[in-house]
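Notes to self after the Tuesday call (sharing in case useful).
The group wants a holo model before anyone commits to mutagenesis around the pocket. I volunteered. Ligand is protoporphyrin IX containing FE. Logging inputs and output together so the record is complete.
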Amino acid sequence: METPYKPLYYGDYLQLPTILDAQKPRSGELNAPTAAAHDEMLFIITHQTYELWFKQILHELDAILTVFAQNPVPEHEVARAQHRLERIAAIGPILFQQIDVLETMTPMDFLDFRDVLYPASGFQSVQFRLMEIKLGLNRQQRVLTHLPLSEVDKERISEAEKQPSLFSLVELWLERMPFIQKPSYSFWKEYQAAVERMFAHDRSMIETNAAMSAQVVSDMLTQTDMNEKSFRAFFSEDAYNALRESGARRLSFKASQAALFVLLYREYPILHLPFRLLQALIEIDENFSVWRYRHAQMAMRMIGSKVGTGGSSGFDYLMRATAQHRVFADFSALSAFLIPRGSLPPLPQEVASMLNFVYIDRQEQDKRTAKSNAAGDYVKTQMQSHFPHAFLIREKVENGAIELSYTFPDDEAAAHALTFIAPLIDGMNAEYGVDVRVKAVPVHAV
Ligand code: HEM
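Result:
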């Protein structure tokens, strides 16, 4: 049978001739007549494999950024973005494991071809820089800002730096999160009170513990005071902003509150997805740190304290970057502000009910409301035509039921009206599945 497209061939589809012809060890070429260093092939293939995974991560990141650039972010798209973040997190262990394979090369094997690499370096991996930038690493955080890149690559990087990063988009998304502040409820105030109760309880436990020496009690109380002080900074916007200015925090006050709320009440169905999303961000950040650390150790093992081929101080630079180049560290740092479940302030019903899934068949509900309104109108016309002296004083609508209250000149007129209208209403309620009631109130009782 003829197909509308050309039959596919495995190697063509995957462009294997191009990919498999892209490993060109330089040591043979430059060290002629010596043969190419055996391990240079492993070195090249490992780097190329990394770059392919970097490409996949960037592909996922671009799609995630498109989702979060929307305001509001459509809920079903958050789920898709979350799934893609989990995919990026799942790629992490593959990146670490490749270090094990590369470390089967000994430092002497590496020396066989290291000289031919100058001045090229992983420093120049544009895809690595793009991942960092798109996730949210900013220039101020960088250990080194001037990288030995080509003009074209510098341009790509500066373009990416102009776009909002995942960090800033997630921050805005968190800042927009409802639930935390209602006219009748302030999560932050409630939480502060709960934290104070917890510390007061901790203090009384320490002070009344007869088994501890006076010195231990005093040390523990000092420690408790310090913990409480660090909590306090989190409760005052000014104190928090001072931390931000000093560089100790990056996430805005509002976004931090929202993220903490998600971590504390994640069992509520609506918060579960944001919780998983924050977890994925923390995991991705952690994966980058683990990779950086393992890569630094590998560099130490291969070149000791020598400078890198790209011109950095080598191991020392890599370790500083490991500590400093974190994007979502503020999210993991929130753990310091969690309190045990038993001390958590319960959410008011108004907020709790918003956080549960509620299934409402809108069409069905609209039909029921229309039927109920029509029945109410019918009863009102009947009342008006049979009892023109009655006045409608109240119309109460609750859960689809309608209660109409009329005044009558006296008890007798009220009773008479009810005897007349009741069978008509009962019949209508039964036939149409509605719930309309009439209350007849003598005027002296109003
Ligand atoms: C023998 C193995 C390796 C050694 C000895 C090594 C060494 C180094 C050194 C010393 C640096 C610091 C920059 C410089 O001065 O050159 C560096 C940076 C870097 N290397 Fe490697 N590397 C190795 C393998 C890899 C592999 C397999 C990758 C995978 C892509 C890689 C990616 C990077 C990246 C992305 C940077 C920049 C890191 C940053 O600035 O935070 N390296 N490497």
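Two things stood out.
The CA atoms of residues 231 and 337 lie 7 Å apart.
Strands lie at 181-182, 185-186, 391-398, 401-408, 436-442.
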